[in-house]
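Weekly structure sync, notes
Attendees: PL (lead), two postdocs, one rotation student
Agenda item 3: pending single-chain targets
PL asked that the sequence for the first pending target be pasted directly into the notes so everyone works from the same version. It is reproduced below exactly as submitted, 176 residues in total.
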Amino acid sequence: MQQLHPYWRMDYIEAPRYPAEMKRPFTDLPALGDDHAALIVQRSGLSYLVLNRFPYNPGHLLAVPFRDVADLEELSATERSDLMEEIVLAKRLLTTALKPEGFNIGFNLGSVSGGSIPHLHAHIVPRWGGDNNFMPVIGHTRILPQSLEATWLRLREALAAQLPAEKSAAGAKDGS
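Predicted structure, written out during the meeting:
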């Protein structure tokens, strides 16, 4: 039998989880006032990007509307547009920071679809060839090669690098 020695995994195991009193994490996280502790990568006017604390893969982001709704149809057209812009931004940030070979992007609507929290959110999951092995299937264990903290920092660096380019493009559009 071979031994696995993922010593870095202890950082993940010991990482703080949501406080017990947090009954609505997608509503409560933005109210914490500490985006670093909440693992919120980016906020727009109507939605935000947050690292999934129980990721399928490294860099697994969630795009979440601030307003507490359970279905896409409950969002206004403006909220849907804002949420889609956050999804596109998430894909761009992950491409810059982690260089995945592909993505799974989608919604789980309703508990039977895998939606564990009744609040609308999109999953943006970076994928690499061979990123899934026997561990999730046989060992019921996911292996993450980087801590959530380190991933958050890399995504924030990618966001900071994108901001000047976005401001330049916006200035060119409005003539500034």
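Discussion points:
- Confidence is low (pLDDT under 50) at residues 134-139, 168-176.
- The radius of gyration is 17 Å.
Action: rotation student to compare against the earlier draft before next sync.
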